[in-house]
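Issue: copy button drops trailing tokens. Both records pasted manually instead:
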Amino acid sequence: MPKIRDFDRVTALYERLSKDDEQQGESNSILNQKRFLEDFARKSGMTNIKHFTDDGYTGRNFNRPGFQAMLAEAEAGKIGTIIVKDMSRFGRNYLEVGFYTEILFPKKQIRFIAINNSVDSDKPQDNDFTPFLNIMNEWYAKDTSNKIKSIFLSRMSDGKRCSGSIPYGYNRLPEDKQTLVADPVASQVVKHIFELAAEGLTPPTIARQLTEEKVLIPSAYTLQYHPEQCNRKAEYGCTNWNANTVREILSRQEYLGHTVLRKTIGTNFKTDERRFATDEERLVFEDTHEPIVDSELWEQAHRRLKHATRRIKEGTHKEECLLPGLVYCADCGSKMSYQTNYYKSGEPYHSFRCSSYGNRTVNCTIHHISDKVLYQLVLRSIQRLSSHIIADECGFAEELKSKWEAQANGKPQKQKDELQTINRRLNELDRLIGSLYENFISGLLPEKQYKSLMKKYSTEQDSLESQVSEIQEKLEQTKASSAHIGRFIRLIKKYKQPAELTKEMACELIDKIVVHEATGKKPNRQQQVDIYYNFIGQFDLPLSEKEIAEARQKAEQEAAKKAKCKKNRQRESNVAHQAKAKAERWAANDGHKYPKRICEQCGKEFYPNSTRQRFCNTDCTKAHQQAEKEKKRFAEKGEHTFRQKVCKICGKPFWPSNGQEVLCSEECKAINRRQKQLAYYHRKQSGQKAGEAI
């Protein structure tokens, strides 16, 4: 790129006028500034003049189109001189003014002149007072900003609106711009939106329904019927609703008849950045105009929005959860997700588990609980509470009031002290972030460190703000309200002795359900579940002796039923295992019950009919038996015909020649004959003696 010669460079004349400067008369007008700068440039012999103008832009920052165009040409080296009427026209942020006049312009060899302040960069000896001028200009801008803030705050503290916009559904009275009246058409749309939200529809679903109904969006309605109140761009006749518009309508307390002011607060007068005001900083004036929705519809809609669930993708197993967004983990505080799993048989079953455990975002345990078990617990709690309230409404109200008073006197002071500590740290972080930005703009802090510290402070701010909301919620829970008790009694009467749990019943009666981690294993598994009701919080009724006995009996019946089911499952499992083993065995044996064997008699292969069969047929069996007999006989007799005997006379073993032979030799036979003869002789002698005696 060729270098631009000095005599070809532009003399930039910069003019700026803010809305605040318009009140100071004609001397600062754009036309007068142009004439003044042109006269100075002409008298100084400067040519190639070019004007850069910002009309209606503040000097607290440099996000101005005219200044940015001049800065782009300066960066390109096309500008040789910049002339302004005074330093306040150039800017009121002394850090950024100093950066341009002391660093950027000298680096680009640009001469800078502020006529009324006698500032000329070619005469550095006359510029010693310039930094103080910049500080005074910034102080003036800050002082003006603070004065305007105090004026607006004073007006808002009196309940007066300082904004030109009004909520959709209202109009201003022509004779009193501060008074709002309900628009007959738009107010019905607002009420319809709250009714849809109370039925459980989410903002995207409501937006789609309004689009299908061809309802004009707020800006299009205002443009068509109240153009004098339309202060934003709008497309005529547009009916394409956005979910964010629905969310904004549902969040506005003005529809309850309240005036809500100071919703945002400026954090830095230099950058015009704003933040959302806290509940303590916001100004709320109740019952200032006609409400469009009543408090019951408002709270019911917000309860349903709080527990709204995401849509299930098409094609997945869809089972409606009866406790949407109501179940929380007791340890990490996150919502518990509704899970669908399947048994081996393919039958689905549903349960709740900690979402942090599933997503691995926090080191938490599963906190698993079956949906049927939880539904039964909730239904039983509602039934018992309903019976208790219907039996004695006054006693229930007094009991609840005394409980709340005991809580209010016990623990809030510690939480209030903690809240004050967190708020002090938040204010300190705001100050640190502001000074961090100033150091970065002035070049005292490198960009890398700036981004690192900003990320650290922002993360800490988010964490502290979430803690503030939690503590405030806990403090609110300790406040007793007779109106809340009455509203809960009316709700519980609506669902008197319910036979089954429904989604509508749960969302109306229950605020949240806190599930603790289970202890022990089946059948001794125990799990604590805390149920918090809308308007009254947690309320536990002690069990009566009858209920304890019924619970014990039911537990025993459940245990017996589970044991019987377990036994049946074991039996079925055994039968299935045996059938499987039999089928595998028959398949391995080519359709036979037992595997092949070799016959011990003939040596052929055969399929036996039992585990003890050793021979292929009866012939082999008989042949084997005969062989065994002969083997046994041979073992006993050898080659003799008869088995070995023992001689009755000498006692020696011998092999007889016939089956009746009992004596081994002739000698033993002779001895046996003599013994018989002697025995005969003795019998005979004894018989004769007996005859003689007679």
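Record 2 (pasted manually too):
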Amino acid sequence: MAREVFVITAFSNLRALLGTALGVLLLLGVLAGAAADAGSAASEGEAMAAVPAPLLNTYWKLVQLGDGPHVSAYDNQPEPHLVLETGSGRFHGAGGCNRLRGSYSLDGRWLRFSAVGGTRMACVQGMRREQQLLATLAQVSSYAVQGQKLVLSDAEGRVLLRFEAVYLR
């Protein structure tokens, strides 16, 4: 009888030990997978930053207007952005208050905006910046894509606007 109790006790202890070991191995596998995902996400972000975003059909979020501070959206207003459509010579976006649309012409590194218009909503915040953005678009002569950034400059090479590419997931 003592031998049967010993065997049953040893078997119970072995089952508990195997259950604990299996739990530890499962936890290690989950942690290793999470670390691999974090590493691949970081390397994916680094790879995207190294590859220039395409000028056309990219959502370009305005980050700087002139030499002013970083631009951000006002509460309940669309963030200022532009999308230059492929093949149509048209663009659309938002100025921070109203939706914008117009035409663009592209010749090498030269870029010109024309026939810029938009909706006519009145916003307490954002109108002054939107008017400045519209006036500045009329001065743009050239562009440069630097990784995930778009820089628009005037004829003398002065930087007028800075944008960042935004990708939807």
